[in-house]
Amino acid sequence: MFVSPLFEVEEKLGANFGEFAGWNMPMTYSSYQEEHLAVRNSVAIFDLSHMGRLRVKGRAEELEELIAKELNGSPGQMIGPTAFLNDKGGFIDDVMTYKVSDSEFLLVTNAVNREKVIKWIRSNSSLDVEDLTFSLVMIAIQGKRVKETFNVDEIPRMTFKLNANYMGMDVFLLSRSGWTGEDGIEIWAEPEVAGKIFTKLTQSGVKPAGLVTRDSIRQEMGYLLYGEDIDESVTPVESRYWVFSLSKGFVGKDAIVEQLRNGVSKIRFGFKMKKGLRIIPRNGMEVTSLGSKVGYVTSSTFSPFLNRVIGMGYISPQHFFLGYSTTVEIRGRTYEIKMDDFPFI
Amino acid sequence: MAEIKVGKYTVLSDLLYTETDEWVRLEGDIATVGITDYAQKKLRDIVGIELPEVGREFNSGDSIGVVESVKAAVDIYAPLSGKVCQVNEELTSSPELMNLDPYGKGWIFKLKCNNVNEKVKLMNAEKYVEKIQKGE
To answer: What's the domain count of chain A?
Structure first.
């Protein structure tokens, strides 16, 4: 199993570690509920070293052919989220893309798909792929009060700088981005530098947060997690994950065009449970409408911010009754879930 | 009551334990039951509980309720046979008490036991420490 280079720093901060996609990462520090509220009301710092970080060099046209979104935009811009799709339109991976120049891009992949994406690019193009995952650490500082740690106006949203300076330290990449719905920055830096930033910020009151919090935060926004909500059998249309541009060609486009013309057999929906009900539907549990099976749950959690259970899943489009309370079967009992749309906050 | 430390886990010397990580405090024929520190740390953030109904009878080993954490839902089992005489209603709104104080405010239910001699099937603290060590 891989271990974050920040393991020792995080252990000192009281991290509870757990396995995620083959990495031993901090799951929680104090309680995920406190960490979650720090992201929403204040500021928190995450270690995202498990995510794949790749540098791709070569002809942009070749990457354009493999990636679903257009890569036109100026250097220093982030293009994303977007995705690599298979020829059936299913997700090979959803990725964040950074345009360094017309012939150089950086990609962030899901941890579980890092090797798969490298192989996919290499076997379908002449692009040069360099894996930076093990030489650089990725951290994210997220929340309204991120401004107090750094003058964020230096980088407009969804842009980045290479060889930047953060708190007087040299970092490889600094971007105004995140996966939380809050203002924030993400940093790629050498392990020693990232460790210093992590320690300094937590000493100054920034709350360290783990992957459990990252999961509850992303569910409030309706962001999808690979392996839970999307995989190779699900398309961007079915998941309502608008990561493609039809104005260009790319692998998987034909399948997407076909679905946009003729419709889909399942569609992603969000739901909320009644306040006070502390039961979590799990991945794969059946969604029913007056006894008929109409869908299934893919993610769910208790949102400390909304003080209720929220989640998402897939439902037959004929039963996508936004605002209506359908039901889910949990351990032989039926519970109401109200269909709602994202973001929940 | 002496605390025994097994790595980051706490075991209390005067309690009895089950294979499924419940603790039992026997006072006469009343057994107070909760989940151990080891169990709560493995489950991590607990967000909900399904409590048994007061008055219901269970045999030892029966599933008596469910603890929901962000990670998983796990059954809790009756360590002894008997009738539920009290449940910790506070857990319904504050299930995190099972994380914060598993042997105290995080108690889950009380059972009026049919036969306290069944306790021979439970582990003492020493045996439970061995079980944790084997599991780690």
So the answer is: 3
